[in-house]
Design a protein that fits this description.
Number of helices of chain A: 16
Number of strands of chain A: 2
Order of helices and strands of chain A: HHHHEEHHHHHHHHHHHH
Largest sheet of chain A: 2 strands, antiparallel
Oligomer: homodimer
Radius of gyration of chain A: 20 Å
Chain lengths: ~350, ~350
């Protein structure tokens, strides 16, 4: 199971499907924006996990349906990101202007921010519809359809709940570590890792204990993945991550990293954080000051430890999982990449 | 087939489902906003058409699955309206503050417009997920599921395409009648009438000729419905319609009504329209001036005639349709209401 070649197969499905959308004149311009968005990159983590879930549960032979399901998860994710960038007012995604910024330049009356936001809400919705279309038109049996639908259904709810909790907490980071971890659980652990794995496994006809093993491995790994993401969002190299290191801080994202720092901070350190985090005018110097507090309080080290613990717990779950051996090995590789990555 | 009692049954399903959502602590506050939104009114035209489509195609006996499908269309529509009100920046829906305005008052930091918009994007997405959940968990056979999915899939695409065409044309009404009618076809004829009818019919196991008859009746009726809506949007009684008569004009909505008026206008009348329509500052006096041009050019009379022609064509299609007689009679009643309504 070679991750790079699975990725290539998923991308081929996406390219074929998005290419066909050009035939509908009314949506050609929106489909074009989506194609550029997909082509600009992304880790394809959900499609890869879906394919590994399918193999783990014994899926083999013709992978057409599994690849379509995997590709549909990437379109679903694109719809989430397009809306998310509106919500966060992020100018950049994958090193290029975010969809609402691209669309702002395509309004009938020239550059128009409101048009961009509105068109991006619709593009997100249409992308979700296309994601469904890619899935429902896959060659699946009734039994497969019945098994996959509830997983996708949970996935849809998990991500929106996570985003809502995130939104409620944004702008006023606090020491509420449990609250910060709940956001991580919904937005990433379930949505990004557990559900994609389960979707692929369900397609392969997984028994309940296989679906449970997907959770036991996926939830801690997903938490570790997001904790790494939070560190990269503040300490990462924008040239590698494709996003500014000021965004999360300006937004005042309520992360476990920030919660731990606020809990451990001296009054002066706490004031240094509160004065800057969540301020849309935060600059490079402010970010540097915040970073030094995050390091000095030991919050960075604590989060690194949380990542290590969760990675270990995922690997332990994998050792006991009733997965096909080859898929388990690939999942371990993926777990290592997810946790150690720099982009 | 009594429309009022069908409506009551659909509302009972909605109430039961939305009541159950309260059990999930994380989404309780969003579910509450949705319940108020649904309880505030709405014509339930899509659920009614879905139930009539089911009966028309011979559906009978236990209506549980049909009612859940019908109710899921109303939730789907709520998700569309919640996003639509963000796009149009409409302050009012069904005589109450629009969802993004309600949510703006529920942010963590007090009244916050950006929070309201973001939370409403997520509420729309979550409502769509709930709509799917209501449908997938209905007691349907595999064959029913397979028949209904492609119809819902088309419905999702139709409404987003229609809204995008609408958005592209808004703010600069023109004499392009074909363009205005294309918006009407996607947004209303297909999304509001044809697809809900077909969804119900598909659930009942409709043969292709029954699905075609749904289109032959539904598309002209849907166009008539929207043309009536456009007239009510400018000439209606806000106390009855629940929405301001300034909204469509301020937005510069590209309607067939406006297209006909611009085609027939004298230079002075055209200037009177162009100076006012699409101006966010348009006031009651401006609206009165626009209304008098719409009447004087004969555009109102022309649109009334278009409504009459389409109503007649829908009724003719109904006469030849292979529908169960009782459902056909109810569809005729509904067609009359849709076209003659004042709210």
């Amino acid at each position: 199971l070679d991750l790079a070649s699975i990725r290539k197969e998923v991308d081929d499905v996406l390219e074929g499907f998005l290419g066909d959308l050009d035939r509908a004149r009314e949506t050609r311009s929106l489909a074009e924006v989506l194609r550029d968005f997909i082509a600009a990159g992304g880790k394809r983590i959900r499609p890869l996990l879906c394919m590994l879930g399918w193999h783990a549960a014994g899926g083999s032979g013709d992978a057409t349906a599994a690849l379509r399901l995997a590709a549909s998860l990437e379109l679903f994710h694109a719809s989430v990101l397009i809306h998310d960038d509106i919500i966060d007012d992020s100018p950049v995604r994958r090193g290029r202007p975010a969809a609402h910024r691209v669309l702002a330049g395509r309004g009938p009356a020239g550059s128009d921010r409101r048009f961009g936001t509105s068109a991006a809400i619709l593009l997100g919705n249409l992308t979700l519809a296309w994601s469904g279309q890619l899935m429902w038109t896959a060659p699946v049996t009734d039994r497969q359809l019945r098994a996959v639908l509830p997983v996708l259904d949970h996935m849809r709810r998990d991500v929106n709940v996570g985003q809502y909790l995130d939104l409620l907490a944004s702008g006023q980071p606090s020491g509420d570590l449990d609250g910060a971890l709940a956001i991580v659980r919904y937005k990433t652990a379930r949505y990004t890792v557990e559900r994609p794995l389960q979707a692929g496994a369900a397609l392969a006809g997984a028994e309940p204990e296989v679906l449970r093993a997907c959770s036991d491995f996926g939830v801690p790994l997903g938490e570790a993945f997001q904790l790494r993401d939070d560190l990269l969002g503040v300490f990462g190299d924008p040239a590698r991550t494709g996003k500014s290191v000021l965004g999360d801080l300006r937004e005042g994202k309520h992360t476990p990293l920030m919660a731990v720092a606020l809990r451990r901070a001296t009054p002066a350190q706490r004031a240094a954080l509160r004065d800057r985090v969540g301020n849309p005018g935060l600059d490079e110097a402010d970010a540097a000051a915040v970073r030094s507090v995050l390091v000095a309080t030991g919050a960075v080290a604590a989060v690194e430890q949380m990542i290590g613990e969760r990675h270990a717990s995922a690997v332990t779950a994998l050792d006991g999982a009733p997965f096909c051996a080859e898929a388990a090995a690939a999942l371990r590789t993926l777990a290592d990449i997810a946790v150690r990555r720099t982009s």
